[in-house]
Specification:
- With 140 residues, the chain is mostly helical.
- It folds into 2 domains: 58 residues, no CATH class; 81 residues, no CATH class.
- It is 71% helix and 0% strand.
- The protein starts with a helix and ends in an 11-residue tail after the last helix.
- 10% of the residues are buried.
- Keywords: Membrane, Transmembrane, Transmembrane helix.
- InterPro entries: DUF1468 (IPR009936).
Length: 140
Amino acid sequence: MVVAAILVITDAIALPDTGKGVAGPATVPLVLGSLLGVVGIGLVARSSAELRSAAAGVPLRSRSALRLCALVAALVAFALLLPVLGYVVTSAGLFIAAALLLGAPRGWHVVAHGWSLAALVFVVFDRLIGLTLPTGPWGF
């Protein structure tokens, strides 16, 4: 996450200044890159502290590896289906799959939250900010 933060911030600084108002095209990437860096540094510190007290030679649980493979498969499916099904449908599927794979309780709440989050992100970025997201056959 720290490496990704450095890349995001470096790319954001390289964006051209439009000179229109206070918020330029680099504003959101700079904020997100900074937050990504703070979270990454926090995770590194936490992992370092836990690593000192961890038992040596503890094998990776097979279910953890299976969950990781399933999450990677969900990301690949998202990338492949995004141009076909549109942002809201594929993002909702990715959010739901990630939540279930990371241990969220099963039920309609996970589905409702996945669809709500995908729709909210679509409205904010596509409609309010004006960044065009893939719409799919349903127009969303």
